[in-house]
Write a structure and sequence with these properties.
single chain; 209 residues; mainly alpha; two-stranded antiparallel sheet; two-stranded antiparallel ribbon; 4 strands; 54% helix
Length: 209
């Protein structure tokens, strides 16, 4: 199945998810799809895409690890959507759609983190936001490499986002803290595969109102 169709399916499934476990499962499915698209780009004959494509694949795999928590076990499946990927289609359009999916996943995880009642869920969401931001950064660089970078600006979650609709609520920066104010345990935090010096997200932007 073509990447754009799978991405549209992933976005729809994320919107339709109503329970925390389902939302986390869909976010993880999105991460696995990112990994699969990155792997396809890494196989490209274009030298400008192979390296960043591998980085995108690794970033997607890292995001999937971050979102692989016990709270989501009941809803997780083994990457079935990503396994249906057969072709990328237009790279610029595919990467632009990936950025939109990543933006929506990041915003959804922020909402979950704001309402988290346990530290485990809170840190799962925050780790997920960090990992999604990394994916979005790499996807933006790839899109620019294939000539799809015009008219887009950086956003708080990393990468790029189209202009917000007229009348859309402004973004507020909200400093989040885990329930009870504790730090995550080694079991609660996912392994960090990012390069040394990459800072975590202590602040995130969410729509006001």
């Amino acid at each position: 199945m073509e990447a754009l169709r799978l991405i549209r399916t992933a976005r729809h499934a994320l919107v339709e998810a109503r329970h925390v476990s389902d939302v986390l499962a869909e976010a993880r499915q999105a991460a696995l799809l990112i990994e699969a698209v990155g792997a396809r780009l890494a196989e490209s004959e274009d030298d400008e895409l192979t390296g960043p494509g591998q980085q995108l694949s690794e970033a997607g795999a890292h995001a999937a690890v971050c979102l692989d928590r016990s709270i989501a076990k009941g809803a997780l499946v083994s990457g079935a959507r990503a396994a249906r990927l057969t072709e990328l289609g237009d790279p610029a359009a595919t990467l632009g759609a990936l950025e939109e999916l990543l933006r929506e996943v990041g915003e959804t995880l922020v909402v979950l983190a704001c309402g988290a009642e346990t530290e485990s869920l809170y840190w799962t969401c925050i780790d997920g936001v960090d990992a999604v931001s990394e994916c979005k950064d790499v996807a933006a660089r790839l899109r620019e490499a294939v000539g799809g970078g015009a008219g887009r600006e950086p956003t708080a979650l990393g990468g790029a986002e189209p202009e917000r609709a007229v009348g859309a609520p402004p973004l507020l920066v909200v400093r989040l803290g885990p329930p009870g104010g504790g730090e995550p345990t080694a079991q609660e935090r996912a392994p960090d595969y990012r390069a040394p010096g990459v800072a975590g997200a202590s602040e995130v932007s969410v729509p006001a109102g």
